[in-house]
UniProtKB/TrEMBL annotation:
Keywords: Methyltransferase, S-adenosyl-L-methionine, Transferase. PANTHER family: CATECHOL O-METHYLTRANSFERASE DOMAIN-CONTAINING PROTEIN 1 (PTHR10509:SF93), O-METHYLTRANSFERASE-RELATED (PTHR10509). This is O-methyltransferase. GO terms for biological process: methylation. Belongs to the class I-like SAM-binding methyltransferase superfamily. Cation-dependent O-methyltransferase family. GO terms for molecular function: O-methyltransferase activity; S-adenosylmethionine-dependent methyltransferase activity. Gene3D superfamilies: Vaccinia Virus protein VP39. It comes from Pristionchus mayeri.
Length: 230
């Protein structure tokens, strides 16, 4: 595992290698000034700043939204709003991000002062406070299954398998789930604590799921790219 940690890293971490910096530099050319401002503010001011998604992961997500022309996005784990902002940038004017978290402290203190500078983007984001499991179930109960084009999972790891199943119900055929922290600093190779055990469980569920195509990628802290089959 010690070897694995040398090649699993978000680009803004001190442990990032030259090849990580190289690939990130060439993968984040569409990272906007507002995104950079929010990333910098998060790293400087947020509690546990390393929770923010890596730029290279957010840019991959934007590409997926563009690829399948998503109009509705699920964002599980708001934190300072960096991922929600990324998806809003890529969505059309009538697009909507439903962003979920049990705590909006970091969003209110760090994220909104930046996001509020772009009201046209903020208008696309529906920030929901409370359990993401409950929010996802409420969307299903509201008849919204099969209507979302993209889902990003980056919240409490123990619920990753639950988030996956609920998101899959809500996705359209051809919809994409991106699971962040899918390698968890390499600890999934020999998972011992609850977070790495849950992530490993989700990775194996997706790999065996005949309803999807999946690719587990060494990008950032690991990204599991999952596409719902038609």
């Amino acid at each position: 595992i010690a070897m694995a940690t040398t090649v699993v890293s978000k680009s803004y971490n001190k442990g990032a290698t030259p090849i990580i910096h190289y690939t990130t530099e060439l993968s984040t050319t569409s990272f906007t000034a507002l995104q950079k401002e929010l990333l910098d503010a998060t790293l400087a001011k947020a509690h546990i700043p390393a929770m923010v998604g890596a730029p290279e992961v957010l840019e991959m997500g934007k590409s997926m939204i563009n690829l399948n022309q998503s109009k509705k996005v699920l964002d599980i784990g708001t934190f300072t709003g960096a991922s929600a902002l990324a998806w809003a940038i890529e969505l059309p004017e009538d697009g909507k991000v439903i962003s979920m978290d049990v705590d909006h402290t970091q969003l209110e203190n760090v994220g909104l002062p930046v996001i509020n500078k772009a009201p046209e983007l903020k208008a696309k984001i529906d920030f929901r406070l409370g359990s993401a499991v409950d929010t996802l179930k409420s969307l299903i109960a509201n008849g919204e299954s099969g209507s979302f084009g993209f889902a990003f999972i980056d919240a409490d790891k123990e619920n990753y398998p639950n988030y996956y199943e609920l998101c899959l119900q809500l996705l359209v055929p051809g919809g994409v789930i991106m699971v962040d922290n899918a390698l968890w600093s390499g600890s999934v190779v020999e998972p011992k604590e609850s977070s790495s055990i849950a992530i490993d469980k989700l990775n194996r569920i997706a790999a065996a799921d005949t309803r999807v195509h999946n690719t587990l990628l060494n990008v950032g802290d690991g990204v599991h790219l999952i596409v719902k089959k038609h």
